[in-house]
Structure formats: C-alpha cells, structure tokens
Amino acid sequence: MRLLIRKQPRSIAIISNGYVVIFEQRKKQNITSDDKGNQPTVVECLRESAFSPDNFVEIKHSLYNGLLGLINVGGHIYIGVIGNIKKVGSPRWRLLENGELEDIESIYQVLSAEFFCLDNDALDPIYSDFREQTGEKPGYEHPCAEFEKLFSDGSFYFSRDFDISNVLQERGLINRLDYTLDNQVEEVLWNYNLISEMIQVRSRITTNELPSFDGGTFLTFLIRGFCKTVTAVDGDDCSTITLISKVSAESKENSFDMQGVDKHGNVSNFIETETILCTERYVLGYTQTSGNIPLKWEVTEGQLLHSKKIRLREDPALIQLAFDKHFDKLSSKYGVVSILNLLKPKSESQETLGSAYEVCAANKDIKITNIAYSSDALINASHKLLYLLKQELYEFGAFVYDIQKGIHAGKQTGCLRISAFDSIRKPLLVEKSVSQEIIELTTAELDGFHLPSSLYGQHEKLWTENSFWLENLYVKNHKNLNKYKKVYWRLFASSSRINLHDPFHAIISKTLKKLKKDYAYQKTITTFAGTFNVNGKNYTDGIEEWLFPRNNGLESPADIYVLGFEEVVELTPGHMLSTNPFAKQFWEKKVLQELNSKAGKKYNHAWGGQLGGVLLLLFVSEDEFSKIKHIEGDVKKTGLGGMSANKGAVAVRFTYSATKFCFLVSHLAAGLENVDQRHHDYKTIVKNIRFAKDLRIKDHDVVIWMGDFNYRISLPNEEVRNSVISKNYSKLFDRDQLNQQMIAGESFPYYNEMEISFPPTYKFDPGTKTYDTSEKNRIPAWTDRILSKGEALKQLSYGCAGNLIFSDHRPVYATFKSVVTVVDEKLKANLSASISEKVKEKLLNKTEDEKYAILNDADFVYDDEKLNPQEPLRPEVKKGRKLPPPSSETKKWWVGNSKQVKVVIDVDPTEYMINPGKTANPFVPTDEKPFFVKRDHAS
Asked: Which CATH architecture has domain 521-823?
C-alpha cells in the first residue's frame, strides 16, 4: 500500500493493487451531514492509470500494510493505516508434491499503526517526509496518539485469507469476500466502526472494478487477543495447532470492566477461544467461551486491605430478561450452551452469586455446574473436572473435515460458557484441559490419524503463551481502567464515525436501480427431491426409475436435484463422529454418473453433507450453477438424547439469485409408539439447525424437508395390509401418525404434503415386494416422506420407485417448480460499465468543483432514452414479505422504492377537469375515455 498527501486541495490518496482511493473533505450544501454535524468525506475511486500524482507527496518512512479506517477526533478526520506486521499463524495449509508446506490461511500481528489528518496540514511536521523537507519538529503530541499506541500494542491481528471474526466451522473452508462481509461477527472486530463506511463504498463500486479493489488492502478487519500457530513433526507426519483467542468488544468502552450483564445481554471480558488442529488429511476445530458472570453485580471493598466483595445489585427475577438475551445470543451462534462457573473456595459472596446464577440458569433451562476449585486443583486434578464435563464433551462434539475424502466428518453442536470472578487464568486452565481432551477423543475415532509425540508438549506451550498475553492485557486494562474506557468510548462512539460519500459510484448505483427491469427478470426453475433409506447397502445397478420417474410433471430433467439418504452406514450409538466417508463418496459418484449420462444435460455436485448414516446431496445443472450462492450446511444429532449420530438431520441452504432455499433430510426416532420422541426430534432439529447470521429454517422462501420420519399407521396389521391391496389409501392416511400430528399443529406445522397415491414404503423383505414377514411382522407404513412450504413453490408430483427392491424401504420422490427473480450479473455489469462511461463523458473537461457539482445534483439526468424510463418502475413485491408502508402526500409505494414523489401535470385547471365518467380506481381497466375533459363554463 502506498500513501500520498496533497496539501492543496487537501487530499490523501491510497494506492493498492493498481486501485486508487482518494479521500477529500468537501463541504457542499447539497451533501447533507449526519446528526453529529460531521461533514461527509468525498471519496473518488480511480484506476491507477487515471490517477495523476501531481502535487502529491508520498509518505515513505514506513511500509503500509492495510487501511485501518477513518475516525473523527476533535472535529477533524483522520485516516488510520497499518504499518509493520508479523506473520504469526497458518491455521490451514497443504502439502506440496516437493514436500514443502504451502499456507492456505495466514494470520498477521499488527506491530504499528499511524493516523494521518485529512482536513488539516498542521500535523504534517509529525510525518517524517514533511519534516525532512521543512526541518520542522513537532512540539506537541498527535491527537490520535492514544489510538496509535492501542493498535500498536501487539494484541491486534488480521487475515486476508479468511473471515477471522468467525470460527472455522462457521466461516467454511473457502474464502469469499462477499460471504465474509455478509456473515462477519461485528462484536469481535475492534475497527469495525472505522471501516464500516468503506464497506458501503465497496457496495457501490462497479463489477468490473471489484477485483482490483478486493485485491487491495482497503478492507482490513482486526480482532484483539492472541493468535499463534505451532508445528509438531514426527518423521514424515506434520501437524499444526493454532490458537485464536478473540476478546469481544460487545460492551464497547466497558469491555474490560468489572461488571456483569447490561440490558442488551452484553458482558465484559468475554473471550472466544478456538483450537485448530491441521494435518495433511484432517482439519479439526473446537471453540470455548468465557466471560464475566451475566448477572447484575458490583464490587465493594472488604474489611481487609485490598480485599473485594461481590454484591448483587438486583434480584435474579429482575435480571432474567438480560440474562436470557445473553444466552439467546450464545445459543444462536454456538448451539447448546452449558455453564461452568468457577467459584473461589470458601468465598461466601461468590457462593451467593453462584446461587443466583443457578436460579437464572434453571429458569432458562440451561445446565450449570458450580465448581469451587483453586488454580492448583485445576492444574493437578484436571481429570476430575473433565469427568464432570464428560457428557458435554461427547454431546457437543468437534468440527472435523476430512481433506482427503472431501467430507465433513463431525460438527460442534454446542459450547462451554465458563466464568470466574476477577480471574482470566482459571477459565484458561479449564479451556486448556478441555482442548487437549477433545483432541484425544476426536482423533481416536478418525482413521489414519497419527499425532506426533511432541504435539501435546507444543499444545501446552501454546496455551501457556496464550494465558500470558491475555492476562497481561487484562491486568494492563484494569490498572488504567478509566484511561482505557475513554479511549474505547472514542473508538466505538457513533460520533467518531465518518460519512463517506462516493458521488461517482453513487450516481451509477442510483441509475442501476432505476433500470432494474433491464437486467432482472422472473423465471421458473424445477427441483427434484428424493429420499431413500438404503439399509446400509451400496447398490451398483441403475437407479433411473427413482431419478427419472414417469409422469413426474416435468417437461425435462429438473434444474436442481436434492437427494436424502438414510442408513448409508451402520452406526454404533454413542460415538462422537461415527461417519464412514466411503458411503458418501459412493452415492455422490453414482448419482452424478446417472444424471450426466441419462439426463441430457450436465450437472455439478454443488454440496454434500453427512451425519452418521444421514446423507444429503445437492446437484445443480451447469446452466443454473452460476446463480447458486452462499451455500451453507448444518447438522444436528438426535440419537440418544443428542449424543449419537445414528439419528439426526442434515441441512443445506443457498440463495438462487434473490430467492432463499433450504433443504433438509432427517431420520427420526423409530417405533410404532414413539410419536412423542419423533415430535421431540422435530423440535430439536428446528431449534438447532441454524446458518450464518442466525438464519433459521423458517427464514427461507422455499423449504423442502424429506427423510425417514418413521411415522406409522395406527391400525391393526391385517387391516392395513388389506387396505393396501384394495388401494384404499385414504383410509390409511386418516390414521397416519404424521398426518394426525400436522392436523393437530404439532410436528411440521404450516408444511404441505401432496396427496399420497402410492402404497406404504416400509417395511419390505429386502429383495422382494413382500411386506415384512419376519418375527416382528411390522405394520406397513409411509415412513419416507417429503414435505414443503413456501409461497414461491408449487408441487408437481409425489411418488415412489416401487421396483428398486434392494432395501427394506422404497425410494420416494417429489418434483416442484419455483418462480424466482433472477439478476443477469453479466448484463448488469455491462450496463454498469456503460453508465460509467456516460458519466465520464458528462464530466469531461470540467473543473474539480464542476464535477462534484454535477455528480451531487439531485436532478442530474441522462439524455440517453434507455437511462430515462418513461414510466415509473413498480418495485417487485416479494412473496412472503410485508406489504409496503401506506402512501402519504410525499411518498407513494408504487413509485421508485418509496422515494419522494413530484408529479407535474401540464393541464390548465381553469379549462379542464378530471373526467367524471372514468372510474376512481386507476388500476381497473376502462375504455378509452379521456382522463381530462373541458369544463362547461356555462354551468
């Protein structure tokens, strides 16, 4: 990154990756300021080839490695940049053919930061380049000196390869900046207030410019805490452990204060710590959290010197609302949360606090364990603590990805919430022990996983270093609490934020919105959904009867195939992972081969996820694949109370252009009488399946849920079999348990199921078309179902492939069509480039002031007819969304996305009047009567 300053007119230019961003404060009457009176900064974004460095002086006394952001200090605008950095971590890497390691992800530590004043040259002597020219020496401290010291203290880190604000499980294995910006955790980004306006600038940059902008260092997101990677080598085996501890800024200026929860559910000293273990074949991630006790309490001085006592400020009943908000945030991010509260032995006040903690936790139905262990006990008797946490460690599991097989072998479904009064060390001792235990438990279940003998020693050293730096950070802040609170207040205050106004790209964005109908259109896409309990068998013959059934309502093979499988492997209950990768690979390969050889068009394998014996595969035709974005998956165990993967669900969600899809496959509890358990499984899945930004199943436009739901028919066996022979399916459906649950509004409320016109799909003698003749003589039932919901969805068919008889189930299928809004990105990019050229033509040979006056003219229009639609565009009304607000005198919902309306009718009201013969409703078709008629002056 290069930084240049121009004195007149005062500007700062930043050049990175061939892209130039020029910051210049311009006070124009037609640019509105914010509530705090901050004047916007005009930002001009240019290619380097169009940038003239005349009158600019480059600052060369330091290397710059990223834009820290912009901040208002004392009424002046300052631009912060990152100076020296140091590479400290590589969470993921790959082994090259020559035996060398290549980093996939890198983490850098910030060693220095500088701030440059945009609107005043009085501080220029502080910058060495100007000092060398003028010989002046500054006699005062820089107004941003506190910020420079803060960001240079070695506790800030960033990465350009991945979303460092999210844990590995949430951010995924492929870095995409758009996805990062959509899913960042703002609470752990300490410079988000400074950089947020640059994100808005990026959103208006044209598609052609984005690669250059994104390849630069204009967006740098900083976390605070500790990051480091250590390596353990044993012969040819190499393993790395990375520790990433993130101090949350959710409490802003109170981030390191000695206080409990605020009314928004935020706490101080909240730290998220992630352990990432990476080998040539596997990558493992595990997350833990710690922070102040989320109650409202205060610290008072004790009778003894330097002693402290804790006093509850409010009764637990009054604290409950804030307490619930805190844990709602945690559960939305981590899943199930279990509390471990570390009390000080023989502390009466801490026991009182622990009792109130238990009351609030019980009201929220959260498991809490209060333990009065000293630090020495946590070190020397950690096995006792781990025994108490055994259930949580097995239930929560760990995130594991098999690089060689390309599958997710495990997922972490919950986390520990650890707290201790006035101590960072004790929670970290617990986390270190848990981290090692998880590595041992998880790797013991992975095939071919060899841990170098030196790994645990490296793990110990890494956690010791992590504790040292976090404790120092904690102590440093507490020794100067009031000083740091003032610095943090200035850092996070809304008044510190700078408004950036990019007039050139704003006018392009504004014009594109007016022309949306030129690049956005509606189309119909088709989906094939199928579910099949394969009874642990890998079938080698053809499955075209299932994938391409007759009378499926489709004119051609579907655009999207989503297939759910159950019992792809036999499972041993109680294991944390229990995933056989070979079954997933077999069915991926088989289905893709069948589709591409018999469908008449090509398909891509877009996504696959497996939990134990439950497998979900997503295939998308090549013509539609480019429109699929933001693919995410999630899983939830439901076997043995959530501890086993023999039952559960796998889900995938994505956006097709602007429409949100969610597909699920689940295997629910078996047994004729287990209706309540199946209902509990359903609720568990709905509660725990969540995606980035806390998206739930219900938040999607289209939902298709399939699987072996295991619901039975509540009729005698003989009666059911006779009804099947006579095809009296309506009689059976009336007593179908799932149908009864849906009618009662219990399981799957608001879901739709097409009429069932095929015989029960369970249970058959494998290899025959004969229902169960074993000793159990099970009653035939429709255990395999496909449900759906969404106004944009219409089901076309529902059936089963009765001739695929290798399993004791029959595969079921359903086809759907969906009307979606599609944005032609290529056409939009071309249109954007065309508008850009036309704007440049308007600005040609104009002075700087004339350019800004033109671009900021609210009435600025184009001569090109294509850029001036004669009729106002009606905004697209998305199904399932709320209606627009009612019209007013100044805003009409049908004009320009609720923009202000100004209508001029060139009619002389003294000569003409509205035709009384026309209907008052403008939306009702009428004859060709004129809208205005001449007045009858005689009357």
From this structure: 4-Layer Sandwich (3.60)
Helix (H, G, I), strand (E, B) or coil at 666: strand
The sign one gets for the Cα dihedral 167, 172, 175, 178 is negative
Q: What phi and psi values does residue 486 have, to the nearest 5 degrees?
A: -65, -40
User: Does pLDDT of 871 surpass 60?
Assistant: no
Q: Is 895 helix (H, G, I), strand (E, B) or coil?
A: coil
pLDDT tens-place string over residues 219-251: 999 999 999 999 988 777 889 999 999 999 999
Indicate the pTM of the whole model: 0.73
Q: What is the DSSP letter of 569?
A: S
The full DSSP string for 399-438 is: EEEETTTTEEEE---EEEEEEETT-SHHHHHHHHHHHHHH
Determine the residue type at 892.
Answer: K
Domain ranges within the chain, ordered by starting residue: 227-393+415-459, 521-823, 873-939
Spell out the residues 6+ positions from residue 762 whose beta carbon is closer than 8 angstroms to its own.
533, 708, 778, 780, 781, 782, 783, 784, 808, 809, 810
Distance CA 140, CA 117 (A): 15
> Looking at this protein, which amino acid is placed at residue 133?
Q
pLDDT band at 870; cut points 50, 70, 90 = very low
Task: Give φ, ψ of 446 to 5 degrees.
Answer: -100, 130
DSSP, collapsed to helix, strand or coil, labels residue 505 as helix
At how many degrees (to 10) do helices 503-514 and 825-843 cross? 130
How far is it, in rounded angstroms, from Cα 47 to Cα 878? Answer: 37
Whether 90 shows a pLDDT value over 70: the answer reads yes
Whether the pLDDT of residue 183 is over 70: the answer is yes
Task: Check residue 694 and give left, alpha or beta (phi > 0: left; psi -120 to 50: alpha).
Answer: left
> Rounded distance, CA 586 to CA 591, Å?
9
Reading the block at residue 62, the tokens are 């330091």
Q: Are 877 and 791 in contact (CB under 8 A)?
A: no
CB of 636 within 8 A of CB of 648? yes
Q: Please, which pLDDT band fits residue 860 given cuts at 50, 70 and 90?
A: low
Q: What is the mean pLDDT of residues 357-369?
A: 92
For residue 535, is it left (φ>0), alpha (ψ between -120 and 50) or beta? left
- Residue 394: the pLDDT is 87
Q: How many residues does the chain have?
A: 939
Asked whether 611 and 688 are in contact (CB, 8 A), the reply is no
Exposed/middle/buried for 831, CB within 10 Å: 0-12, 13-18, 19+? buried
* Residue among 621, 589, 617, 626 nearest 602 (CA): 621
* Phi/psi of residue 224, nearest 5 degrees: -125, 140
